[in-house]
Amino acid sequence: MKGINFTAVYVLWLREMKRFIRAKSRIVGMLAMPLMFLAFLGLGFSGISIPGMPGSVSYIRFLVPGIIGMGMLFTSMFAGISVLWDREFGFLKEIMVAPVNRVSIVLGRISGGATTAVLQGFMLLLISIVAGFAIPSAFSLLLAVVFMVLIATTFIGLGLVFASKMKDMQGFNLIMNFIIFPLFFLSGALFPLDNLPAFIKAISFADPLTYGIDGMRASLIGFSTFPMAFDFFALFAFSLVMVFLGTYFFEKSESV
Amino acid sequence: MSMQAIKVERLTKKFGNFTAVDGISFSVENGELFGLLGPNGAGKTTTINILSTLLKTTSGHAEVAGFNVSRSMDDVRKSIGIVFQDPALDNKLTGKENLEFHGMMYGMRTDEIRDRVNDVLALVELTDKANVVVEKYSGGMKRRLEIARGLMHRPKVLFLDEPTLGLDTQTRRHIWEYIRKLNKEAGVTIILTTHYMEEADYLCGRIAIIDHGKIVAIGTPKKLKDVLGGDVVCLETEGKPEKYMKYLKSLKWIKHTKIHDGEMCLTMEHGEKRIPELVCNAPKAGITIRSVSLRKPSLEDVFLHFTGKTIREQEAGQSEAQQMMRMRMRR
User: Fold this and answer.
1) What's the gap in Å between the CA of B49 and the closest CA on chain A?
2) CA dist., res. A230 & res. B106, Å (int)
3) Is the pLDDT of residue A79 over 80?
4) Which end of chain B is more exposed for a tag (fewer CB within 10 A), N or C?
5) ipTM
6) Would the CB atoms of A95 and B105 count as touching at under 8 Å?
C-alpha cells in the first residue's frame, strides 16, 4: 500500500464541506427528524416508568443520546452510500482517473462524511442542552464527541461496503429497511436492552451503534449498560474493521 | 518518453460473454489528432476507459505516454486528461471550484492552480462564469468546462469521448474549433471517439474505424476515402438487376459495386463522364434507371464499404444484449 495523499484527502473533505454548507435543506432535514423523534417520544412517554431504568433518570434524558445516535446512523450510512450519487452524476470518474490512490479517496470521503455527521450530532446535543438537557461537565461533552466520531466512521465504512456492491441507488430502500432500521432498533436507542428477549439482546451486541449510544449515555447522563471504556474499545474495533472493509470493497469495485 | 503517445497491441476486453473490444491494435504518435469512429456500442468508450485506467484489460497490452496502463496506473493518470461522454462535474460547485478540485487532486501547487484556472477558463471563454455553480450552466458550457478541466494539469494526451454528443450545431462547431486549436497550438495529442462522420472527417488527422470491437480500417480520412477510388455513383433502378450487375462488373473502370437499400452504389474515377454510358446501357440489360446521383465519397461510404452497413443501420440493428451492456457501461 502506497502512502496516503493528504492533499487529496483534504480536497475531498473540502468538497464535502462546500456541498454541505450549500445544501441548506439538507442541514434542516437532518436535524428536523431527530428533533421530532425527541420531542414527541420524549414528551409522549415523559411520565412513563420503564423497567431496567433507575428512577433518577427521566425518559427524555435517556432518549437524547439514543436519538443523537439514530440521526448519526442515518447520516453516516448515507454519506457512505452517496458514492453512488457520484457514480450516477459521473463525478466518481473524475475522482477515479486522478493520480490518487484509492485509500486516500476513501479517507477523504470518510473524513468529509464524518465531519458532517459529527456536526449533526453536536448540533443535536447543543439544541438539547439549550432545551434543558443538563450535562455533568464540559469534559463529558468531549467524551460524547469521541463516541460520535467513532459512530460516524463505523457507519460510513459500512455504507461504503454497500455502495461498492450496488450499481445504483435503486437498492437504497432495501438497505434502509433491512439494515438501517434494524441497526437503529437493536441499538437500545429507545429503551434499555435488558427489556428484550435474550436472543434479540444477543444480536444487539453485534450492533456497533449499541456501544456508541451506550458510550454517549455513560458520558452524558452517567447511566449505561456497559462500562464506558468497554464501549469505547468495542466501537473502536468496529470502526477499524468497517473502515478496512469499506476501503477493501471500494478498491475492488469497478469505477464505470 | 517514447515517440508514441499510445500503443495498443491485441487489446481485448470482455464483460462476461460479451466481447466489447476484440483484439485491437493501433498506435498514435505524439501530437496527432486521432479519431476512433464507430457506431454506439462498437467498443470506443470501453477502449478509452481502458486507456484511462478505469477498466482493467482482459488480455493484450496498452501503453499511454510510454506507461503501461495495467502496471503504472498513477503515471498514466498523471499524463492524461479526459473528457467523458457523460458530464462528470460536481453540479453543486462553481466552475472555478471544479477546476481547483482537479488541480489539487493532480498535486499542483496553489499558485500554479490559480494561474492555470485563469488560463483554461479564458481558453474556453468561461471567465465570466467562473463563480457560477455548474448546476446553472448550459450543456455546451459544461462541456467546455470539462475540456478546460482536462487541460488543467497540462496532460500529454487528451481523451475526448464523444465531445459533441447532444450539443446543437453551433456549439458543436465551437467545440471543434477549441479542439483544433488545442492540437495545433498547444501540441496536445488528442484521441477522440465519435459516431459523427463529419466530426471525424473535419477534425482527425487519422481515423480508426471500429465496429463490433474490431478495427476494420485505419488511416487518414483522405486515404480511407481513396480506398473507394474516386466518385460514388448511385443508381435507383427498376427491374431485375442481375444482368445489369453482371455488365457493371465487366467494366474495368468500376472499382466497387454494392447494392444497398435498393440502390446500386458504384465507385469510379471521373463519375460525371461515365454516367451517360451507364444510363445508355441500362435498357439493354432490361432495367430502367429512375435516378442517378453522384458525390464524392464520404466517411459514411467508407464505413459502408468496410462493414456492409451504414453507421445508423449498425446502431439500429444492435442486439438487445449490446444495448443493455451499453446502458450498464454508461453508468
Assistant:
1) 8
2) 42
3) yes
4) N
5) 0.87
6) yes
